[in-house]
Structure formats: C-alpha cells, structure tokens
C-alpha cells in the first residue's frame, strides 16, 4: 500500500501542470528544423499505426504532400500557426476520424468558474453553412432581435467567408463524401475561431437580412440567479435522464421515442449519439412498448448523429433482425502490439491513476492476447464481429431510416448494413461517414514532440459486414430528399413528411 500511496502522490503532482507554463509554450515560436521533425514524426506514426492509410490517397501523393509542407516551413511558428499548416495535410488523408487536436489556451480554475457564470458569446445562436456563407437560423434568446435567416457577413471586420475558406481545409469526411463538411463545420467553426482569436467578451458582427446590412455588438452576459439554479437542476441525473441520455449543455436528449399517430402504428426513435450509456435499457423499454402497441412501421432518425458505440448499434440491430446477423467484418490492425498503444492512463485523475496502476497487469495480458493472425493480416478480437441472435422483442414491420450529411461513423455502419440487408428504406441525403467502413475503434494518443500538439490515431479498420460499394463515398439514400435552410427555420421536415405520406398511402391501399 505504501507503493500505491507513492503512485498517488506522484500522479497528483504530475496532474498539477502549470496553466501558465502551458499557455507560454502555446505562444512560443518553434524553430523550423524542430517543426520539420514534428512533420516527420506525425507521418511515421501514421505509417506505423493506421491500418488503411492509403485508402483514399496514394502513397506517392501523400509523400509529396508531407515533403512539400516541410519546404514551406522556413521560419519559426507558434504551435497554433503550425497546426494550420499541418492539419490540412492530415485532412488530405480523407479519414474523418483523423485529426490533430487544435492547440488551445488553458484556463485557470478561477477563469473557468467565471466563465460558468456567463452566457456564451456566439453559442447562443444556431447556424447553417452553405458554400462560403453562414446564416443564423435560430436565436432562442432573441438577442438584438436578429431574425432567423440572417447572414453573418463579418466578425470584427473580418469576412466570415475568409474564415470558412480557411477552416474548411481542416475538415475531411471519409473519402469523397459530398455532404459532411457543412454539418461538421457549423459545429466546429467557433472552436477554430476562439482558438485563433481568443475568448472575447464582446464582438462586432455585420449581418445581411432581406438586402439590409446591419451591425451589432454582441456582449457576453452574466447569468442571473435563476439561470444558475436552472443549470444546477439540469445537471441532476434522474433515471429518465440517464436512460434517454440527457445532455445538460444543450438541454436535450440523445435518445427519444414516441408514436407519431393516435393508433400507435408508427413508432419513431431519434438517436443523436450512440453513446452506449444506458442504451440497453432504452432499447429494451422502447421495443417492448412498440411490440405491445402492435406498431406496423418504425422510423429511426440518425440525422446529425456523429456516431459512437459499436455495442449500441449492434444491440439496436438485434431489434430489427429476423435471423442471426454479423454486424461488422473482423477489424484489422497493423501489428499485434497495437492494442497496447492506447494510452491506458490517459485523462486519469490521481485516484484513478492509482487504481489503474493496480489493475494494469490484468489489462496488459488481456490486450496482449486480444489479436490473432489470419491470411497474413492481424485482427483485433471483438464481440460485434461474431453472430448475434435477434432479440425476442425484435420489430418485424417496415423500417425507414432518416439520414443526412451529419450521419457519421457508427451511424454509417448501421445504415450501410440495413441497406445491404434490404431491411430498411433510407430517406434523406448521403451520409457523412463512408459506406464501406472507417478507421476508428480505439486510439493511440500521440503528441508531437516539439509543438506538443496532440495527435490521436485510430487503430481499427471497422467495416460493416456487407458487399462493398467501392464508391469511396457515404451511404446513399434510397429516396433522396434535401432539407433547405428555410425548412429548418420554418420547422418543416420534408424528409420525415415524405415517409409519413408514404405510410398513409400504404394504409389507404390496405383499407
């Protein structure tokens, strides 16, 4: 126990990294020769660990990109400046999960507490991006009475189009997908913006609405006592919040279920994220209700779902299958020692670090024997690449699935499987994630030695158990229907409306 006490104390000390020191490093300039070392380090780690590095780009082309980048580094750069040079090359691999972590400023506990007592500056709006233009489509707090549909032209006199052009280069989907970027960019835009420009208390924005230009000054407002009490209430975890996976920051649920008609013939499940937490209980309760109601139709909505747990989508599929199925093909890794490169102690508190140290031998042996060789390739053992039986409460009626460019990763895996098995009709637009799989699963969290930029690398080639399309694009819908910005503003849903109309037609025929 004395040894574990020492581990605990060392972990506590190591976790108390100076915020000031981190921010000083972030603002320091790094010599070109050291930055070039980081470029080589990043590429060498990709070649060692990424199981499908040249899926969408040839080796000569990627070699050329990295060599050309080094030739452009001729003067010292800060880690942030270096990030904006290197990340477009990483994005050029065309693997949506593969991305450097943007070097952010750290905040002291005092600063964090102060921010928690204020409202966001830009996050109180909802946005829509089309081409190089950004629009405000929701303003729930009626800030400055800005109308939905207002175009955001500039921020502090810098054109928004310039930012979009710059930030678009930092984002890639899987392969040659056409739909992913606008969804992901609108969600990450102000992450990039604040990393570049800092977390300000005010901002001047220029807007355009119905041909009229206006300028507004946005200010970060202090939360009232009522707001703070509401925040506390939202953080409380009731059983309902757990089962439906409540997200306090957005005051919404990741999972929800309802019937869309009075006679309960149409069941509707919306999943915003396959987080796995309490998902088994959610699907058990939901499909029990569907079975009890005798529903004939099921709509599953995975629009704007960036993915998550393979366990959860395998479990969900078991409620849709009428015979045993295998969700994914065996997952390939680059070598037998890859499972041991997953940063076991990452993000551990001092107490967690101490307990993990005790459990490490068991973890080591489990991971050491988690791979096997077949046909000269190395694969990682997973439960979801084994046959699964249908659940006793499996739904046997007609299934529709709503998809769009925000349907990524696990959302694309399950929709590709449903489409290949002809188990569902897909409605909407091409998914953001690839039809034929992706590289993710679990990660090795690398850090570039000189710039100290974090670089997580996915280690598993995860592919649905289907006949591959070889399109190098997303899962295509059976029925293609676009949703316009005006549809969102008017709270119309043409994709869901099409399904409901189709079901009405079927009901009329049956009558």
Automatic annotation (TrEMBL):
SUPFAM superfamilies, A to Z: ClpP/crotonase
InterPro entries: ClpP/crotonase-like_dom_sf, Tail-specific_protease
SMART domains: TSPc (SM00245)
Domain Tail specific protease, residue spans: 236-482
Domain of life (superkingdom): Bacteria
Annotated protein name in UniProt: Peptidase S41
Species of the source: Chryseobacterium gallinarum
């Amino acid at each position: 126990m004395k040894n574990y006490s020492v581990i605990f104390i060392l972990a506590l000390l190591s976790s108390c990294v100076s915020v000031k020191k981190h921010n000083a490093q972030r603002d320091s300039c790094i010599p070109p020769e050291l930055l070039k070392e980081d470029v080589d380090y990043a590429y060498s780690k990709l070649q060692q660990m990424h199981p499908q590095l040249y899926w969408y780009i040839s080796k000569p082309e990627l070699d050329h990109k990295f060599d050309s980048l080094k030739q452009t580094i001729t003067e010292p750069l800060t880690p942030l400046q270096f990030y904006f040079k290197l990340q477009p090359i990483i994005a050029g691999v065309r693997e949506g999960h593969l991305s450097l972590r943007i070097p952010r400023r750290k905040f002291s506990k005092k600063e964090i507490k102060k921010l928690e007592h204020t409202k966001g500056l830009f996050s109180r709006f909802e946005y829509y991006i089309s081409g190089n233009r950004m629009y405000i489509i929701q303003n729930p707090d009626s800030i400055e009475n800005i109308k939905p549909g207002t175009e955001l032209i500039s921020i502090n006199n810098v054109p928004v189009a310039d930012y979009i052009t710059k930030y678009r280069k930092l984002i890639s989907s899987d392969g040659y997908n056409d739909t992913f970027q606008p969804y992901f960019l609108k969600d990450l835009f102000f992450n990039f913006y604040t990393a570049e420009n800092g977390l300000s208390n005010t901002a001047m924005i220029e807007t355009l609405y119905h041909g009229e230009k206006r300028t507004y000054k946005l200010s970060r407002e202090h939360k009232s006592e009522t707001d703070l009490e509401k925040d506390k209430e939202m953080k409380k975890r009731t059983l309902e919040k757990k089962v439906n996976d409540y997200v306090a920051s957005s005051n919404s649920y990741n999972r929800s279920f309802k019937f869309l008609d009075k006679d309960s013939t149409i069941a509707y499940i919306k999943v915003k994220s396959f987080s796995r937490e309490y998902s088994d209980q959610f699907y058990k309760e939901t499909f029990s209700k569907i079975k009890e109601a005798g529903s004939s139709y099921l709509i599953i909505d995975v629009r704007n779902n960036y993915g998550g747990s393979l366990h959860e989508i395998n479990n969900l599929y078991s409620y849709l299958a009428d015979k045993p199925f295998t969700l994914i093909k065996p997952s390939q890794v680059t070598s037998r020692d890859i499972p041991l490169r997953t940063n076991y102690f990452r993000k551990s508190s001092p107490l967690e670090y101490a307990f993990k140290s005790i459990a490490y031998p068991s973890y080591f042996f489990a991971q050491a024997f988690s791979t096997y060789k077949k046909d000269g390739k190395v694969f990682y053992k997973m439960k979801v690449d084994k046959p699964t039986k249908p659940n006793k409460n499996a739904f046997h009626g007609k299934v529709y699935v709503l998809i769009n460019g925000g349907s990524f990763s696990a959302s694309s895996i399950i929709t590709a499987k449903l489409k290949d098995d002809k188990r569902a009709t897909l409605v909407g637009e091409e998914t953001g994630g690839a039809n034929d799989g992706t590289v993710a699963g679990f990660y090795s969290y690398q850090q570039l030695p000189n710039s100290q930029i974090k670089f997580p690398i996915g280690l598993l080639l995860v592919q649905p158990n289907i006949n591959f399309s070889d399109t190098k694009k997303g899962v295509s819908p059976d029925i293609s229907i676009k949703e316009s910005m005006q549809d969102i503003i008017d709270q119309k849903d043409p994709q869901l409306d099409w399904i409901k109309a189709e079901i009405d037609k079927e009901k009329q025929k049956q009558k």
